[in-house]
């Protein structure tokens, strides 16, 4: 009952004119950014994060969340029409979406994707309402040892899902944790790894690193091979994209399954929309009566994964809001927004700032409605805009990034950090070292070190404290399993 | 794959591995003035040393992966000619950093935009200048007046002095 009352309060917050406007802006920006290959939701959130300084925490989160789930849909447009995934979560949609477009059914594919995104996104918010407060209540009972193990587990899950190589993922995590060490030591105030630079006394800020690595490094890579992108010509008027009853009937169960997969997989750090969409596709192909249709324009091949990737956005918010643990770079940026506004992410957030939490949850319902309406009605406009703006995108992104990063601390040094990490990010992708663990390591490094040192102080320096507490031991066991299982499975396959 | 090609393909990863060793050495070297244990509790050097240890072990595994995995662990690297575009884009960024406070934001953004649009995107001079002016004025108005971010005027600060 309390949850429902809080939900209504949250909806009241979300339905204020200012929040509605910024929700719509977030959804439109997200859809457009998702549709433009070269920059993803993390890059867009990173670039626009500084612009949210003046907004207040609720409005800022609402807009960033709009960008997050908007990009999941936007990536579908390029997957279907251009056979180029605008987002990693839209790779799977390409397999059947583009063949459908070539058969003259682009409207069907895009319409089903919009409906599936709405269903997945909306139902996952109900899951967030139920599981979020429950997890927050449980988390209040955790001490420093449990928190440290929980953060290590979160980082290890990101590594397990981030790429093929566990070793490279762990190297990236250590690099991120190392970046978090720069600055003044939290406990003693002594400068550490600052190289005598005044600007590094406050540490390396998350924002320039995130913008550089996720926004600009993609643009640098884009200039390597500038392949012209072909857009499939299609009739995309409103009536053409509305799915027929037959299509909806055919896609009903794939959407139900996609929602469940997306939400529960999305809760796990590192898993998120991309893994959810692949799992959904694999399941639909396996249980289909006509598996040979997959890859040639199967409706379930579009409906299931598109539902799953948006359901995962709701799942990803569960650990972010209730534990203060980001499960992806985009949620890490939303967490950074909370920290920027002086809020402490974690289980106490539900009590300390209920307006923020429930306002955000309320906006997810509103935003998903906006997503389906805007996308069904405005697809031709989005496609036209994509076609016209492509050539100007690199300079616009560079400028928005520079201005955005500068506006945070009025420091040109931060722009320098951003460019440096853009190069680092570009280099890392060339040698197949994943970027997501670096960002999460940077964000969680400080709290993880704090918890580690507190736990050791409380146990008089006994490292077995992490195994003596059952919950901490369980988290560490999951950590080991998440790192060892993929290696063992691969060896078995080989 | 021939041994020569395999060796070439491994070079970037070997270089990466060497850089990681430098990072490990740096973590230990640059924190040597800090206490490892302080008043019975982990000191400010504790975490850097722990990380250095982990990175060192991981780097050994990384080298093992490079040299012992099938296919030689080689990656496809861009050719030098393909790096001209990325390098130019980075140069635009570096130009902006260098002149941001010296020249002022508006002038810097104008020159950077015109340069990028003309030489990287290969638009005509007319279009590049027109779009460059539009972009520089729009970003200035958006950030300076709408978002209230004070932007440096550089050598044009005399224009703002009343």
Helix content bin of chain B? 55-70%
Q: Unreliable stretches of chain B, pLDDT < 50, 5 or more residues?
A: none
Q: How many strand segments of chain A? A: 2
Give the largest interface pair and sizes: A-B, 60 and 60 residues
The average pLDDT of chain A is 83
Described by the principal axes of the CA atoms, the overall outline of chain A is globular
Span from first to last CA of chain B? 71 Å
How many domains is the backbone of chain B divided into?
A: 2
Order of helices and strands of chain B: HEEHHHH
Number of strands of chain B: 2
Question: What proportion strand of chain A?
Answer: under 5%
List the domain count of chain A as a whole number.
1
Roughly how many Å is the radius of gyration of chain B? 25 Å
- Read across the widest sheet of chain A, the strand sequence of neighbours is 1-2
Low-confidence stretches of chain A: none
Share of residues in strands of chain B = under 5%
Query: Helicity range of the residues of chain A?
Result: over 70%
Q: What does the main sheet of chain A amount to?
A: 2 strands, antiparallel
């Amino acid at each position: 009952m309390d949850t429902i009352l809080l939900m209504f309060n949250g909806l009241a917050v979300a339905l204020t004119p200012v929040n509605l406007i910024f929700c719509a802006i977030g959804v439109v920006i997200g859809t457009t950014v998702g549709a433009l290959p070269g920059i993803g939701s993390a890059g867009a959130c990173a670039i626009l994060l500084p612009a949210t300084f003046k907004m207040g925490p609720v409005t800022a989160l609402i807009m960033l969340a709009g960008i997050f789930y908007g990009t999941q849909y936007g990536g579908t447009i390029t997957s279907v029409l251009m056979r180029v995934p605008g987002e990693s979560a839209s790779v799977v949609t390409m397999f059947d979406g583009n063949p459908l477009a070539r058969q003259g059914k682009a409207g069907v594919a895009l319409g089903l994707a919009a409906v599936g995104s709405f269903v997945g996104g909306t139902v996952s918010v109900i899951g967030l309402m139920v599981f979020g407060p429950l997890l927050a209540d449980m988390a209040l009972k955790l001490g420093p040892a449990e928190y440290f193990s929980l953060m290590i587990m979160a980082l290890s899950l990101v590594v397990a899902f981030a790429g093929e190589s566990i070793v490279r993922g762990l190297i990236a995590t250590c690099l991120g944790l190392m970046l978090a060490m720069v600055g003044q030591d939290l406990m003693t105030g002594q400068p550490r790894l600052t190289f005598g630079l005044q600007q590094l006394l406050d540490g390396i800020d998350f924002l320039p690193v995130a913008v550089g690595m996720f926004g600009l490094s993609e643009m640098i890579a884009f200039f390597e091979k500038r392949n012209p992108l072909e857009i499939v010509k299609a009739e995309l008027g409103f009536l053409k994209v509305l799915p027929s009853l037959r299509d909806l009937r055919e896609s009903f169960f794939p959407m139900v399954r996609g929602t469940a997969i997306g939400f529960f997989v999305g809760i796990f750090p590192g898993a998120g929309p991309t893994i959810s969409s692949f799992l959904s596709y694999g399941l639909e192909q396996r249980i289909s009566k006509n598996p040979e249709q997959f890859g040639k324009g199967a409706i379930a091949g579009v409906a299931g994964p598109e539902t799953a990737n948006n359901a995962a956005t709701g799942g990803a918010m569960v650990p972010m809001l209730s534990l203060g643990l980001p499960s992806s770079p985009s949620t890490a940026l939303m967490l950074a927004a909370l920290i920027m506004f002086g809020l402490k992410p974690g289980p106490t957030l539900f009590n300390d700032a209920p307006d923020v939490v429930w306002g955000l949850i309320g906006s997810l319902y509103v935003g998903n409605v906006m997503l389906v309406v805007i996308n069904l009605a405005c697809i031709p406009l989005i496609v036209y805009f994509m076609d016209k703006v492509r050539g100007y995108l690199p300079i616009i992104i560079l400028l928005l990034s520079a201005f955005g990063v500068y506006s945070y601390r009025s420091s040109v040094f931060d722009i320098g950090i951003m460019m440096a990490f853009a190069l680092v990010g570009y280099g890392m992708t060339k040698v197949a070292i994943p970027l997501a663990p670096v960002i999460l390591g940077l964000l969680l490094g400080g709290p993880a070190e704090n918890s580690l040192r507190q736990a050791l102080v409380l146990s008089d320096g006994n490292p077995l404290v992490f195994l003596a507490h059952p919950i901490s031991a369980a988290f560490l066991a999951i950590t080991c399993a998440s790192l060892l299982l993929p290696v063992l499975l691969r060896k078995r396959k080989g | 794959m021939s041994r020569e090609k395999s060796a070439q393909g491994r070079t970037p990863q070997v270089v990466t591995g060497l850089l990681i060793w430098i990072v490990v050495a740096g973590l230990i070297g640059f924190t040597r003035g800090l206490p490892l244990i302080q008043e019975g509790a982990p000191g400010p050097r504790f975490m850097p040393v722990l990380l250095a240890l982990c990175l060192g072990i991981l780097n050994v595994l990384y080298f093992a992966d490079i040299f012992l995995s099938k296919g030689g662990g080689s990656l496809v690297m861009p050719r030098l000619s393909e790096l001209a575009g990325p390098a130019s884009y980075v140069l635009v960024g570096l130009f902006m950093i260098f002149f941001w406070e010296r020249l002022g934001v508006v002038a810097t953004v104008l020159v950077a935009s015109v340069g990028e649009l003309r030489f990287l995107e290969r638009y005509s001079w007319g279009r590049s200048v027109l779009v460059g002016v539009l972009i520089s004025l729009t970003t200035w108005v958006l950030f300076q007046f709408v978002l209230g971010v004070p932007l440096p005027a550089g050598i044009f600060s005399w224009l703002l002095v009343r």
